[in-house]
Specification:
The protein starts with a helix and ends with a helix. The chain is built from 8 helices and 7 strands. A hairpin with a 7-residue loop joins strand 4 and strand 5. It has 207 residues and is of the alpha+beta class.
Length: 207
């Protein structure tokens, strides 16, 4: 969608069916490509931010809080259909998160109460709903790898069915998820809200 044409015909477009979702998608598209607001020449280059995140992860590995990881190859801009502002950089989820995983792949033992086990139906509205959820024993939950136990500041991401829904984890209540939900743990240098918007953009969804 061309920005100039959008502004010129905004009054007509806003009355069309599905106008709000289309406009929202358009705004997200502009934000992801760095075209929503003017760029600040004093902003730090993305390259320096990524280096800080790399050092953060290396320290977590050294302290035994994170498994050693194999860095991915640098992403080339040729893989995308658009260019970025001067100080921006294409990268991967692995490079901006301390972990990227999903729920346990083994069928969990059911329990009448204990720790909530969420499925896609519990997060479909982009928020966490514990109503009528399943439960697992506390022992099962505590045996999970720490990266498979969502915590405050994580981003859940649906992987099948109602695909591509980002859900911010905003409180410290203990719960776990099935394997159909991804668990992204962004670096402390990455804004959770921005990552959530990024993950529901057309560019990410199409990939």
């Amino acid at each position: 969608m061309n920005a100039g044409l959008l502004l010129k015909h905004f009054a007509k477009i806003i009355e069309a069916p599905e106008a709000v979702p289309l406009l929202r998608r358009f705004i997200l598209d502009l934000a992801v490509r760095g075209k929503l607001v003017p760029q600040d020449e004093n902003d730090e280059p993305a390259e320096k931010l990524l280096e800080r995140i790399k050092l953060e992860k290396e320290k977590l590995v050294k302290d035994g809080k994170l498994r050693k990881f194999e860095p991915l190859e640098k992403v080339a801009s040729i893989d995308f259909e658009f260019s970025l502002p001067e100080k921006w950089q294409f990268t991967t989820l692995q490079s901006i998160c301390t972990s990227v995983t999903d729920g346990d792949h083994l069928p969990p033992p059911k329990a009448k109460n204990g720790i909530p086990l969420l499925v896609i139906g519990n997060v479909r509205t982009k928020s966490i709903n514990f109503d009528n959820c399943r439960y697992v024993e506390k022992e099962y939950y505590e045996a999970l790898d720490v990266i498979r136990r969502p915590t405050t500041g994580d981003l859940l991401y649906t992987l099948v069915g109602s695909y591509g829904i980002p859900i911010k984890v905003l409180d410290s209540r203990e719960f776990c998820v099935q394997r159909h939900i991804g668990i992204l743990r962004p670096s402390k240098h990455i804004d959770l809200g921005f990552l959530a918007y990024l993950m529901e953009s057309k560019q990410i969804f199409d990939q």
